[in-house]
């Protein structure tokens, strides 16, 4: 991921990404509240009557679950900015010769997931693209909310408590169970565990994120996607120019996710993790945040704190301290390689 010749997999290193964003950024208008920047996944525009939140994300590392994940991942990133996702556009890039019945199945998966989340698909583009080995699905999601409900990633404040909502590594375990079921069985993972992971533990954070935003309980929120829980924490630190100090022993991992990861030599803390919401908030709001998360059916726990200082993540383990200045390479990308 850190090579200078562009041969990394996944997200670009922050320094290189910042250079590229500086070339893309064009004009600056007062209506754009949040534009492109490392760690900020959603664009936010003041329309006067509401705040429009928009986000686009591709799915490139999943196989059987591409359509469902594409809708959920993009929707989560709108929700963690404080808006309920309402509309979506879908881009389907298909390998030459990809069977039409599989395209229809992919479209059905996208449509069913959008309906489940209350999202209307309003357009998009579909084509067969030379050079692809498998489909790439990108979903652009939009939603509106009030000005007071907006929650930027880069708003973590010194003194905040860091709270994990939802198990770490669950999206990655969902992908591994669906795409590598045979290998998991060969490595001794029980079929019952595999079936549990194939269903997906809890991949959407829309309802809990929107309620936390509307009640003004949090300063910052971030969905743990590529790079996993650790990647999300680093991105909050970078976007907020703060130091996050995390106690590794307090991080919550579902025991079945941990079992599958151990069998495949995968680190669940670096594993793509939609359905894991990270929030930073005043300590006096902690009890309310935990109550709301648990009412929505999520495991939740305080795992660290925010402090002034260099933008970085400090992870404290058993007698070890690790400092991260960049999101780690996602374990799904490493596993595919």
Description:
The protein has 337 residues and is α+β, with helices and mostly antiparallel strands. The longest helix is centred in the N-terminal third of the chain and has 17 residues, at 100-116. The protein contains eleven helices and 13 strands. A hairpin with an 8-residue loop joins strand 1 (32-34) and strand 2.
Kindly report the average pLDDT value: 90
Number of structural units classed as domains: 2
| Count of runs of 4 or more consecutive helical residues | 11
- Flag low-confidence runs: none
CATH topology of the largest domain: Phosphoribosyl-aminoimidazole Synthetase, Chain A, domain 2
According to CATH, the homologous superfamily of the largest domain is: PurM-like C-terminal domain
Major beta sheet, strand line-up: 8-10-7-11-9-12-13
CATH-defined architecture of the largest domain: Alpha-Beta Complex
Strand content: 15-25%
CA(first)-CA(last) distance: 12 Å
Using the alpha-carbon principal axes, give the shape: globular
How would a textbook summarize the main sheet? 7 strands, mixed
In percent, how helical is the residue content? 25-40%
Series of H and E elements: HEEEHEHEEEHHHHEHEHEHEEEH
| CATH class annotation of the largest domain | Alpha Beta
What does this entry show, briefly?
With 337 residues, the chain is α+β, with helices and mostly antiparallel strands.
Using brief descriptors, characterize the structure shown.
globular, 23% strand, single chain, alpha+beta, 60s Ribosomal Protein L30, Chain: A, Phosphoribosyl-aminoimidazole Synthetase, Chain A, domain 2, 337 residues
